[in-house]
Write a structure and sequence with these properties.
The longest helix is centred in the last third of the chain and has 26 residues, at about 160-185. This protein has 2 domains: about 5-65, lambda repressor-like DNA-binding domains (434 Repressor (Amino-terminal Domain)); about 110-220, no CATH class. The protein has about 220 residues and is mostly helical. Helix 2 packs across helix 3 (about 30-40), helix 6 packs across helix 10 and helix 9 packs across helix 10 (about 200-220). It has 10 helices and no strands.
Length: about 220
């Protein structure tokens, strides 16, 4: 069917803490067949797709990976709340994509920091804050230097050196975050698609869409 269906089918079952045996009984299919569907070894028919959507209370578009939201909606600029104290970009045709991206990123970061506040790990929060700070710094420098007439003396470090140091700094921050997660991750709250959508609503739509878009880009590299 596609590469997303097996992953999402398995994710839905595991998020609800159901066994393959229980789900196969409820859906009236053999457990071995359900296992094949979850591993992508076999493709299901349309009837089973609809039955699974009804069983888990999600849309078929979500099951197929077409929508990042479980209800099957496709995110637009108006679906994401305008972040406080952030000036709205122009609404001309050329700015629509940029405005959507900006709001999606800011809303996603807001959700991430809310999750970090629940984890209550200062090292993790500091590491990820530094990672994001250096990412924005690099984005600004690349934007600033796009016009060679802009005076580079606004910065205290040469562009080439600064960008490479920022990249190294992000790698260090990422390493610290990974180490903290490995050592203390068991104490963190459980995060599921349902919990994100229930607690964050519009922010969750932005975050899940960002995940989907990011992985779509990464798959082109892999």
């Amino acid at each position: 069917m596609n590469n997303d269906f097996p992953r999402i089918l398995s994710l839905l079952r595991k998020e609800r803490r159901l066994s393959q045996k229980q789900v196969s009984l409820d859906l009236e299919i053999a457990q071995a067949l359900l296992s094949h569907y979850e591993k992508g070894k076999r493709e299901c028919g349309l009837d089973f797709l609809v039955k699974v959507a009804d069983y888990y209370g999600v849309s078929t578009d979500y099951l197929l990976g077409r929508s990042a939201s479980s209800n099957g909606t496709f995110i637009t600029e108006n679906d994401i709340p305008e972040p406080a104290a952030v000036e709205k970009a122009g609404t001309g045709a050329g700015n629509i994509s940029a405005t959507l991206s900006k709001k999606m990123i800011i809303s996603s970061i807001d959700a991430v920091f809310s999750l970090l506040s629940k984890i209550k790990n200062q090292k993790l929060t500091s590491a990820l804050s530094n990672f994001l700070t250096l990412s924005v710094y690099s984005c600004f420098r690349l934007t600033y230097h796009f016009n060679p007439k802009n005076d580079g003396k606004i910065f205290g470090i040469r562009k080439e050196l600064a960008l490479r140091c920022a990249q190294a700094g992000r790698a260090v921050s990422e390493g610290i975050a990974v180490a903290e997660a490995n050592d203390n991750g068991a104490n963190a709250p459980l995060i599921t698609t349902a919990s994100l959508e229930n607690e964050y609503r519009q922010q969750a739509a932005a975050l899940l869409s960002l995940v989907k878009n990011s992985e779509h880009s990464l798959k082109k590299i892999l």
